Amino acid sequence: MNKVLRGEVPSLILIFVFSLLFLSIGLDKVGEHWDEVTVASVGESYLGFIKNEDFSQSSWELNHEHPPVAKYIYGTARFLTKNIPILQDKSGYYPEGRDFLFARFFSVVMSSLTVLVLFMIGFQISKSRLVAGLVALLLFINPVFQSYARIVSLEVPLLLFGSLFVLYSLKYASKKSLKNYFAVVISFALLVGTRYNGLLLLPFFYILQLHYLSNNSNWTNLSNLKSLIMPVLSGVLLIIIWPYLWSSPVSGVLASADRGLEVHTREYFLGKLGNAPWFYYISYLLVKTPLTLLALFIFGIVGGFKKTKQVVVFALLLFLLPFAASFLPLKQDGLRYVNLYLIGFSVICAFGVIGVIGVIRSMGIKIVILASTFLLLIISLTNHFPNYLDYYNYFIPVVDIYSKRLFEIGGWGEGVLEAVKKLPKPQDGQTSKVYFAISPVHIIPNLPDGFIETGDFSQADFVLINTNYRWYDGLVSNSDLERFTVIKRITVGNFIELVSVYQKLPI
Q: pTM of the entire structure?
């Protein structure tokens, strides 16, 4: 930490503590999500392999489509949960081995660190506490960031390590110390070791170095060599920590990447079921980003080119590079595979705020505009809590998104636990049967006392059906539900339906 940034330690502590406390709210408000079991349980298996000194490629082929770093992290959380009773969930809703609440706290810690690193990036490029604070705040209140901040997912460590890579790339560009260099090497290894799309940030490092070279006469051949071999050293580090690559690094990486880029699901996009087109991610950006942030982003680009052109160009590069994934075969799950764009996006939005402040002379009007802007964003977050995966702005009417199947809704099982909790308590001594028309099936929670699951629709007293099931399975029709009445709907933002709870009508 440089001398200037040391003076910001109180601010850094405050940002981290605030983020940690806020993100810790509601960890138990949502049930299991799609990938949580894969990431956490596979990580636990990896740690078991290491403990048993099993480094065979056949064992490590388990979930080999993604590198292991995130799985090591969440696997540690699973190990601690199983061995420390106080960390275990006591609600009874989670099936045995599917309690991920403490693992989610790991996500909260990493997400809070990411907000902290974004503050440091903002300070590194501007030397302004205001800009740094805005960068961190605008990341924090972005629903796309909030979507993954509380759940077990590759996106959380990916964004953290991506932010660290950007920070130390900036530091190394300005000061060619071994400390900064090895920080770049390690952060890049962790980034790519989480998911391969981290490779898309590599051009940022080299463009920074070329910019430094064109503006400094102290560049040496050693500096050239170190920059060239940086990704090689990161690759060596990845091989060391991933036993799957030990027997054959090159073929192992190729097999892993080939599996990771395989298109294994189709989803609805703009009303059609099929493989996503190249403009898939850009479309999701336009409908999942609050309109206020989109306006600040545009203002930040236009205004930034007039006053801080160099910084905005680098931030725009950071924003655009992740969208190179638009030209890869695998495109799915909204903005999940391009979430690294949030780094550059937050920086540009911060300069958008500075630009808005700059054109207004009246301090009172500045305060009103800023307060109104952030109040609208906070209200939006509050209305969609805790299911930010299904946040959509009003760029397209949300009714059309649902009725015309324009964009994904409830694809990770959102709302199912909330629906189970809404089942009316049966009378003493009675047992009610529940039929789950839910997709994905593996996220279905345990039922409370007085309820049992049935696979026979004709015997059901209650039916739970989610939007994802309606769209992709549809084995329960409207005619099947004629003998039932809706008693509860789980919605997002009071508009988008996730799950409906039906009760059988009395005969």
A: 0.95
